[in-house]
Amino acid sequence: MVFLTLSSAVLLAYLSLSSKPLPTVALDDGIGKLPFMGYNTWNAYHCDIDEDVILQTAQLMKSLGLADLGYQHMNIDDCWAEKNRSVSGDLVANATRFPSGFNNLTNQIHDLGMKAGIYSDSGWFTCQLYPGSYLNEARQLFRDAEQFQTWGFDLLKYDNCAVPFDEIIDLGMVGKYTRMADAIANLSATTSQPPLLYSLCQWGREQPWLWAKRLGQTWRTTDDIDADWEHLASIINQNSFITWASDFYGHNDMDIVGNGNLTFDEAKSHFTAWSLMKSPLLIGTDLTAVTNETLEVLMNPEIIGINQDPVVGTSVSPFRWGVNPDWTFNATHPAQYWSGESQNGTIVMLASLNVLDESADMFFNLTESPWINAGRQYSVRDLWTHTDNGTAIRNFTAKAVPAHGVIALLLQDAGPEPAGTQPPCARPEWCIDQNGTLVQ
Ligand SMILES: *[C@@H]1O[C@H](CO)[C@@H](O)[C@H](O)[C@H]1NC(C)=O
Ligand SMILES: *[C@@H]1O[C@H](CO)[C@@H](O)[C@H](O)[C@H]1NC(C)=O
Ligand SMILES: *[C@@H]1O[C@H](CO)[C@@H](O)[C@H](O)[C@H]1NC(C)=O
Ligand SMILES: *[C@@H]1O[C@H](CO)[C@@H](O)[C@H](O)[C@H]1NC(C)=O
Ligand SMILES: *[C@@H]1O[C@H](CO)[C@@H](O)[C@H](O)[C@H]1NC(C)=O
Ligand SMILES: *[C@@H]1O[C@H](CO)[C@@H](O)[C@H](O)[C@H]1NC(C)=O
Ligand SMILES: *[C@@H]1O[C@H](CO)[C@@H](O)[C@H](O)[C@H]1NC(C)=O
Ligand SMILES: *[C@@H]1O[C@H](CO)[C@@H](O)[C@H](O)[C@H]1NC(C)=O
Ligand SMILES: *[C@@H]1O[C@H](CO)[C@@H](O)[C@H](O)[C@H]1NC(C)=O
Ligand SMILES: *[C@@H]1O[C@H](CO)[C@@H](O)[C@H](O)[C@H]1NC(C)=O
Ligand SMILES: *[C@@H]1O[C@H](CO)[C@@H](O)[C@H](O)[C@H]1NC(C)=O
Ligand SMILES: *[C@@H]1O[C@H](CO)[C@@H](O)[C@H](O)[C@H]1NC(C)=O
Fold first, then answer.
1. Which ranges carry the Alpha galactosidase C-terminal domain (predicted)?
2. Which of 238, 328, 333 to mutate to test the pocket of ligand 8 (most atoms within 8 A of CB)?
3. Threshold 0.90, pTM exceeds
């Protein structure tokens, strides 16, 4: 009897939990359908920011042609505030850094045809110990969400430092980030202005890919990027297991592009993986000293086109790991063979990340990708050389892929494969004639 009572209690508890399922679809409040693109001040400037740096960067985004390619957000990171709120409890911008005020700055950014982003934190303080927004998120407390919107910002990056003690906060990660999500939604409902784009930055803690799409548009999946090959490989490896979480209105955020100490091939790998995995594309390098090579990488229109695909929101995913067995979690040797859908009909993409330390040929059978039809041939376009590379029948080999290099291809249905192509089945196992004979 005791046992039965206990299990009924467990069952009841389970039923009462499951009777209130949370919505599982992405929040569609009209913004952030595609991964956002822009600039973030942290990686190049850390705390050394002011209105001149931000305006100069925004103007360079425009004059270099980045803004017109879609890099529209000019996002201010940590250290913009005074250390104390005003006597009435409002956040105050550092008047030495921002003598013209934020409304002036966001007006000028908007005049360039761009959008402005601001930064805060879900705890008592930001990571550099400026005031956080905890207990100050909401309109009823006349504070931060409204302040950011009144200042003219379009986006809020929301960090995860200086978390209040457990008995104060009484919330998990989801609850802590829900406070600002509610404030943003309530503010938008009250003002009829578009909501702030909510960019959650909890460094991948508590599996945000499972819940953050209910609250905002992007969520960081990993720690701050250190853009050398070792860290890139590790970020790609981690994200290779959660590619399913990105789609319209909700995106895995892999952090900054266009920064770090990378070779040209590594920079192309970085940008290709981030773009095709539908991460936001936030530039983090000093644009006054940007190299032509970096710009060439960041401004590849065919790669950006995939990231900003208006019809297909999903990410590429691995179909074969390559050097390691499938599903191997390995920080130095992530999956090498990936594919995904894109806008242009029966198009297939493949980005082969060569994780070896010397150049190598990379071979795949077309039907290893779920998006390829058997019995068809495919035209091949190379998205880095911008060339049409003939027609692939059954398989394709990329020759001498450089160490840490990438190949990005667009495969497009080019009709039935030639009659009599052998063997009769692309996948020979269970290749059975109608009369029951196994054909080898
Ligand atoms: C405000 O900006 C000035 C100039 O950059 C800087 O010296 C000062 O430390 C900043 N104040 C705070 C509280 O960060
Ligand atoms: C700023 O706030 C801290 C507490 O967070 C307080 O100790 C300090 O006196 C305040 N400074 C000023 C100038 O109000
Ligand atoms: C912004 O401030 C600058 C310098 O104070 C001033 O010249 C300019 O007119 C202001 N612009 C706007 C849009 O308010
Ligand atoms: C947002 O609005 C809902 C419904 O009106 C309310 O229950 C909630 O407390 C509000 N949240 C905040 C943070 O203002
Ligand atoms: C960049 O990497 C190269 C090769 O690993 C190394 O020699 C160089 O010192 C690095 N430069 C910086 C600024 O880290
Ligand atoms: C970079 O490209 C610009 C425009 O194409 C050219 O004028 C400039 O000389 C190039 N700089 C270098 C260092 O190659
Ligand atoms: C599909 O092709 C068109 C025409 O070339 C191009 O404008 C568009 O960007 C492509 N879509 C994607 C997602 O690459
Ligand atoms: C990662 O994979 C490589 C290649 O198979 C292997 O040499 C290395 O030992 C693996 N690393 C770990 C930590 O298992
Ligand atoms: C490619 O297809 C051939 C012929 O069906 C098969 O023998 C081979 O194992 C396949 N290779 C891969 C990597 O799937
Ligand atoms: C690739 O496919 C062709 C058929 O088009 C076949 O002749 C060739 O053996 C295949 N290569 C491999 C390595 O499976
Ligand atoms: C596609 O063709 C171009 C031009 O010949 C060549 O440079 C490139 O390596 C080819 N791409 C692949 C993946 O073979
Ligand atoms: C059955 O199919 C196989 C393979 O297509 C063929 O070689 C064989 O002649 C067929 N047998 C009969 C009885 O039709």
1. 333-411
2. 333
3. yes
List the chain residues with pLDDT less than 70: 1-24, 139-142, 345-356
Map out the domains of the chain with their CATH numbers: 2-220 (3.20.20.70), 317-416 (2.60.40.1180)
234 is written with which tokens?
């590790």
* β-sheet with 115-121: strand ranges across: 251-253, 218-220, 197-200, 155-159, 115-121, 73-75, 37-40, 281-283
For ligand 11, which residues put their CB under 6 angstroms from it? 382, 385, 387, 389, 398-399, 407
User: Has 388 been annotated as catalytic?
Assistant: no
Which of 422, 435, 438 for mutating ligand 12's site (highest number of atoms within 8 Å of CB)?
435
Of 78, 159, 253, 255, which residue is the catalytic one?
159
Residues 197-239: tens digit of each pLDDT: 999 999 999 999 999 999 999 999 999 998 888 899 999 999 9
CA 348 distance to own-chain centroid: 20
Catalytic status, residue 159: yes
pLDDT in tens, 138-162: 755 558 999 999 999 999 999 999 9
* Closest among 58, 13, 81 to 283, alpha carbons compared: 58
